[in-house]
Amino acid sequence: MDKRYNAMSLSEQLALRKQAVEDVLAHPEWSLPQAIRHLKTTMRLTTAELATLAGVGFRTLQDIEGERSEGTVQTMNRLFGVVGLKLGVVRQ
User: Fold this and answer.
1) Torsion of the alpha carbons at 54, 57, 61 and 64, rounded to the nearest 10
2) What is the pLDDT of residue 7?
3) Which helix (H) or strand (E) holds 10?
4) Domains delineated in the chain
5) Is 41:18 a contact under the CB 8 Å cutoff?
6) pTM
7) 3-state DSSP call for residue 88?
8) How many degrees, rounded to 5, is the angle at CA 85 between CA 10 and CA 27?
9) Residue 25: predicted pLDDT
10) Engineering a disulfide at 80: which of 2, 45, 48, 85 sits with its beta carbon 3.0 to 4.6 angstroms away?
């Protein structure tokens, strides 16, 4: 957890995770980098922590967040998989 915040109980961490997922699902207009940034900040993770949890490179995550790279579908699924989400295609 980001050291700028006080330690939280497990139930508080789970509540933040649930809120982050609900926020992302409620805003389909957000770009993928915006959604990743929101998940990271809401769950109070550093870029390094999220990259480690997702199994992606630190620089890769930085590039995605900075919109210098779109990232692959596999990378996005790893990042969103941290909170139980997965990219998909839906019919409108």
Assistant:
1) -120
2) 81
3) helix 10-26
4) 30-85 (1.10.260.40)
5) no
6) 0.85
7) coil
8) 100
9) 93
10) 85
| Residues near 92 by beta carbon (within 8 Å), at least 6 away in sequence | none
Q: Which of 58, 56, 44, 63 is nearest to 80 (CA)?
A: 56
* pLDDT tens digits, 59-83: 999 999 999 999 999 999 999 999 9
* Interior angle at CA 35, CA 6 and CA 21, nearest 5: 65
The answer to whether 64 and 33 are in contact (CB under 8 A) is yes
Instruction: Give the number of C-alpha atoms closer than 13 A to the C-alpha of residue 26, restricted to the C-beta side.
Output: 8
What the block records as the tokens of 23 is 């926020």
Euclidean distance between CA atoms 20 and 79, whole angstroms: 13
How does 26-42 read in b/e, with b if 16+ C-beta sit within 10 Å?
A: eeeeeebbebbbebbeb
The closest of 27, 24, 74 to 54, measured between CA atoms, is 74
